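User: Can you recover a sequence for this backbone? Please restate the input before giving your answer.

Assistant: Of course. Working from this structure:
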């Protein structure tokens, strides 16, 4: 474990490790609750299932080795993978592995997601490093369910 956090995209047997762990991560668990106004009772909140989890972060992809970075791969390797995930409409696992400074595992984030948006930012202040804003949304498998007809017993 490197600096307490590691970020991964896992697509089948293909694992993409981020070279520099982002310094911030936003995980939003919203709701689909409905507020209704009743006559003489005011507003009530009808509780529904949670909405899909949304994840956002900015990641730095270095063009050189820094003391705090893992191995440096060509940014094109990462960009090609992001492009493949979008074009093939492929859901994948987003994993954040966490550990204490002593290396003891704490808790992980491991959810199936889709790559919603990526935005590349190049800035002279960042040198030739590329900053990528990434937005993910939880993906849930779905399909038609076939119900069996109950048979009467006598």
């Amino acid at each position: 474990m490197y600096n307490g956090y590691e970020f991964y995209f896992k697509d089948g047997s293909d694992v993409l490790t981020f070279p520099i762990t982002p310094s911030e991560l936003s995980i939003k668990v919203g709701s689909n609750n409905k507020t209704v106004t009743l006559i003489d009772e005011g507003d009530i909140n009808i509780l529904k299932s949670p909405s899909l989890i949304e994840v956002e972060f900015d990641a730095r992809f270095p063009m050189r080795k820094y003391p705090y970075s893992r191995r440096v791969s060509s940014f094109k390797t990462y960009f090609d993978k992001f492009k493949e995930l979008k074009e093939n409409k492929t859901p994948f696992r987003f994993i954040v592995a966490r550990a204490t400074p002593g290396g003891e595992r704490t808790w992980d984030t491991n959810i199936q997601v889709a790559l919603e948006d990526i935005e590349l930012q190049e800035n002279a202040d960042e040198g030739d490093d590329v900053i990528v804003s990434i937005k993910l949304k939880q993906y849930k498998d779905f399909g038609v369910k076939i119900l069996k007809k109950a048979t009467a017993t006598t």
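That completes the design. Residues 19 and 71 are 6 Å apart (CA to CA).
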